[in-house]
Amino acid sequence: MSDDDRFAIPGKKGNFLHYSGTGGHLNYEADYVVVDVETTGFAAWKEDRIVELGAVRLSADGTIKGSLSTLINPLTGTTGAKHIHGISIDMVENAPTYKQVYDQFADLLDGAVFVAHHAKFDEGFISAESYRAGVKLNRMPGLCTYWLSRQVLQLPNYKLATVTGHYGIDQQLAHSAYDDALVVAKFLPHLINSYGPVEQYVQTVDQPRLGIKADLLPR
Q1: pTM, whole model, 2 decimals?
Q2: How does DSSP assign 23-61, residue by residue?
Q3: Which pLDDT tens digits describe the chain residue by residue (219 residues)?
Q4: Which CATH number fits domain 17-195: 3.90.25.10, 3.30.70.20, 3.40.50.2300, 3.30.420.10?
Q5: How far is CA 18 from the centre of its chain?
């Protein structure tokens, strides 16, 4: 892969992630938290917002240790491309805001490596929403499974559905934030076993809290 700012290349610093893989000076066993978001569009720092958040925390051996799944009220009156993610404005009308669920999300982020497929996209939205909520996220290690799958697999493409199919994982609801995060959590240990030790550039950290909590609303 070329050195392209659209992608999460090891050694690159994002808004709050320092991407892992190769070239780092730290090797340690840590939990991973796989994150996926559904959004109203692609402009995280402009008009677009998260409408669904999913996260799965797992140990290096693949044992799931916690999860979060909720629709998010973007407070913008639109959910964007319903034909892709299936989320209507009626579905999010009574959902919590990102600010209201942030602390529960932070519980999963503490002391873990942030993982996502095309991680720059998810990082951008988490960073922007956290900023709007009044949170400055501490820099933590990140890992992109799009990058990682390209290192160890020979596939026609590295879309989430293609990698999931390669490992024979049954996906129940594509473009659901929780289900997308769950399938990545299922194939992540296979990728790491094939790749070998993932080298980190920074230690894991805890994230700040707002002192707010609301009921989640999974779809």
Answers
A1: 0.95
A2: S-SB----EEEEEEEEESSS-TTTT--EEEEEEEEE-TT
A3: 344 566 789 999 999 999 999 998 998 889 999 999 999 999 999 999 999 999 999 998 899 999 999 999 999 999 998 888 999 999 999 999 999 999 999 999 999 999 999 999 999 999 999 999 999 999 999 999 999 999 999 999 999 999 999 999 987 777 799 999 999 999 999 999 999 989 999 999 999 999 999 999 999
A4: 3.30.420.10
A5: 14
Burial 130-143 (b: 16+ CB within 10 A, else e): beebebebeebbbb
CA 174 to mean position of chain CA atoms: 15
- The length of the chain in residues reads 219
